[in-house]
Specification:
- The chain has 24 helices and two strands.
- By secondary structure, the chain is mainly α.
- The longest helix has about 30 residues.
- The radius of gyration is 25 Å and the shape is globular.
């Protein structure tokens, strides 16, 4: 056990021993008193062979004490400031991905003579960055933390978007858009992790719902703003608006966003303690599996694909989500064909057709927040804290039915122009609703089905669907020219229809399929163990005779195998690893 040490040694130039709790920095408003940190009884002997294992200082209700450097204990308002910044970052990046699609006709006038595929690449190039970026920024956040990863990516993201305004040809514009996508993709990789770092699973429904809707709202909002601005001032002002939006995101993150990644924060705390005392302090992760940057990146490139091709659930659901994602981005080409060429609308007015997808996305989000999340919470509470992953699929089943209906409706009412414009726009409401229901439901399903492997599963999912989003839209014009508007739209409907049985099959037979998979079987056993341990802890907390528990005797129920011994407070932090911590799942998958 560590002994009590003087708080103000002479060799303390950084003031590490001072008992202050307020930093004059917007991104770190609260700091735990140093005396609480250093006097906590950590496990270990303080030597290289047996270092002190640094954990969060447990809550002490008798003293109204919380370790405020633990993101799970941030003030409620502070959590929501960080949540809105993270969600706004994802929304801004996805708006940037689609806004220039509304200015394609203006870009054609300035840079004539290229094929349709080259012009479509203005949008698709940005998504190429979504293929490359996650392979860099996911591991980067584990080494350097989420806050710094946002800062070092948003700055070049802003620069490359600003440089698009001065592009002299299509090649330059496409290259700049690709790099903007690479750096901007950090928002899609780490924003969800930032939210999950702060909210325990039973509290994060609304926050994750807001964040998860951003990838669908952004692409629908972008063409609306881009269409009117392009019509009034030209495509370069659209690029300038994207640059200003990027600058605002950068400023918000630099000034206000706190660091939330617990393993990084604990590692920094261990370094401070080592420097201050001369003893050896390490996190549980660094004791059991020291951080290896090369191995981390190598595994990031390997493990998602191992799971992708060994797990039929992962493979089929990823292909399904990828097709839906590609269909969403194909609309950026099909909408101008229908509303501008066929109906003669201006770019700005044609952009308003995307409002239908936006409205549908909000309806889908509202369904999840106000019906599905409460339903799931009631069920999981009634059944002792555990539900099989298939309990997430009713939402997907509804979306899987609604989505192709919207596609066929849109395909057969877009023309002739004698059909009132509101009819196809109403169809896009169903399209937007179906996309959100399927995506959010399947995200939750994959997370629940592959708890400790979920980060790798979602990483592979993101890369594959971005590939689909890059490639399929390139052929949209050719498909519409060959098949015509009605049958080209119907082709998308048939693709969605082909996968409609999938969620129903997994709803009835998914449990049996998962028990045949080692990875899914381990995750299912872990989920039940976590639920059992949480019930035991709740019973202990309700007991008036229960003594405050130290970290030494508590084993974490978090799915992150990086942290195998953490205090009771952190047992609720399953979400931290479900979204962003690949290292632990990598080691398990390698076995």
């Amino acid at each position: 056990m560590v002994s009590i040490i003087s708080k103000h040694p002479a060799n303390d130039p950084e003031g590490l021993g001072q008992d202050h709790t307020l930093r004059q920095k917007p991104w770190m408003l609260h700091r735990t008193a140093w005396s609480e940190i250093i006097n906590h009884p950590y496990e270990g002997q303080g030597t290289e062979k047996s270092p002190y294992v640094v954990t969060w200082v447990p809550d002490d209700p008798a003293r109204s004490f919380k370790d405020r450097e633990n993101p799970m204990t941030f003030k409620f308002y502070y959590k929501w400031i960080a949540t809105l910044i993270a969600a706004f970052g994802t929304l801004g990046v996805t708006i940037s991905s689609s806004m220039l699609s509304a200015a394609i006709w203006d870009i054609r006038l300035e840079f004539p003579g290229y094929s349709n595929q080259i012009y479509i690449m203005v949008t698709s190039a940005f998504l190429i960055g979504f293929v490359i970026g996650p392979l860099l920024w996911g591991p980067g956040s584990e080494v350097y933390g989420r806050r710094w990863m946002f800062i070092v990516t948003y700055i070049p993201f802003t620069i490359f978007n600003a440089a698009c305004c001065g592009a002299k040809n299509m090649v330059a514009l496409i290259v700049l858009r690709t790099f903007a996508g690479i750096f901007g993709s950090s928002a899609t990789v780490n924003s969800g992790g930032t939210i999950a770092d702060m909210f325990p699973a039973h509290q994060r429904g609304l926050a994750m719902g807001i964040f998860a809707a951003a990838p669908f709202l952004g692409p629908a909002i972008g063409p609306v703003a881009g269409g009117f601005l392009s019509e009034a001032s030209g495509w370069k002002w659209v690029a300038a608006l994207i640059a200003f939006l990027s600058l605002a995101l950068c400023a918000l993150n630099v000034i206000f966003l706190p660091e939330t990644y617990a393993p990084y924060l604990l590692r920094r705390r261990a370094q401070r303690l080592t420097k201050y005392t001369g003893k050896v302090y390490k996190t549980q992760q660094d004791v059991t599996a020291p951080l290896n940057k090369t191995k981390l990146i190598t595994n990031q490139l390997q493990v998602p694909w191992i799971l992708m091709f060994k797990e039929p659930i992962v493979f089929l659901m990823t292909i399904y989500m990828s097709i839906i994602y590609a269909i969403l981005y194909m609309q950026f080409t099909s909408f101008p064909l229908i509303f501008q060429q066929a109906r003669g609308w201006s770019p700005g007015i044609a952009g308003l057709a995307f409002v239908g997808i936006t409205v549908g996305s909000f309806i889908g989000l509202g369904y999840i927040i106000f019906y599905e999340n409460p339903r799931y919470s009631r069920l999981i509470h009634a059944r002792g804290g555990y539900l099989p992953p298939e309990s997430r699929l009713p939402t997907v089943m509804l979306g899987a039915v609604v989505f192709p209906i919207g596609l066929f409706w849109f395909a057969w009412t877009g023309i002739p122009i004698t059909i009132h414009w509101i009819v196809p726009v109403l169809a896009t409401v169903l399209i937007g609703m179906g996309i959100v229901l399927v995506f959010l439901g399947l995200m939750n399903y994959l997370v629940d089905a592959y708890l400790q492997y979920a980060a790798s599963v979602l990483a592979g999912n993101a890369v594959v669907r971005s590939m689909f989003g890059v490639v399929l839209p390139l052929f949209t014009v050719n498909i519409y020219n060959s098949l015509g508007i009605r049958w080209a739209g119907s082709l998308m409907g048939f693709l969605a229809l082909a996968f409609l049985p999938a969620p129903f099959i997994f709803y009835f037979y998914g449990s049996r399929i998962r028990r045949m998979s080692k990875a899914a079987r381990e995750a299912d056993d872990l989920g039940q163990m976590m639920a059992k341990k949480k019930l035991e802890m709740m019973a202990l907390q309700k007991s008036p005779e229960t003594e405050p528990m130290s970290n030494a005797g508590i084993s974490s129920d978090s799915p992150n195998v990086q942290e195998t011994s953490m205090e009771a407070q952190e047992n609720e932090s399953e979400a931290q690893t479900v979204v962003g911590e690949n290292d632990g799942s990598v080691r398990r998958a390698e076995q």
